[in-house]
Hints:
- By secondary structure, the protein is of the alpha+beta class.
- The chain has one domain (about 5-140): Roll (Nuclear Transport Factor 2, Chain: A).
- It is built from 3 helices and 5 strands.
- It has helices at about 5-20, 45-55, 80-95; strands spanning about 25-30, 35-40, 105-115, 115-125, 130-140.
- The strands form 2 sheets. The chain has a 3-stranded antiparallel sheet, covered by helices on one side.
- The longest helix has 16 residues, at about 80-95.
Amino acid sequence: MGLFPAYIENDQTISRQKENRAPREYEIDFKTGQLTGKIVEGLEAIKIWIWLALQTPRYRYYIYSWDYGSEYDDLIGQGYTEEYIEAEARRMTEECLLVNGDIQSISDFSVSMENEKLKISFTANTLYGEIKIDSANIPVKQKE
């Protein structure tokens, strides 16, 4: 019998078990955005988490915490300079991804404007290895 109530001890045990477990996600076909029905672990699971986090607008859906998702919508249609958009895109990407404890840092970050879309490329340095992302396209100008 412990000093603390059972529910406190159980919560600590569960958190210790989560620390030792590799991340798991449902596999996504990135071309169609559809689930494949398989479960993946480790580096591939983190890649899917990154894709989902970058695609999900922050603060829009009640099901997600306020720490989850991206804020790229704030750049759309504002008429900011390219330099400002590039700096903000880097900050927003880091804030979006570094909430995941498996992602240690973002490196090799580059931003370019192509056809009124922001193209973001970077390398996510994780506990399980590096993930190269080079196809995140975000619209930054409203259609007129």
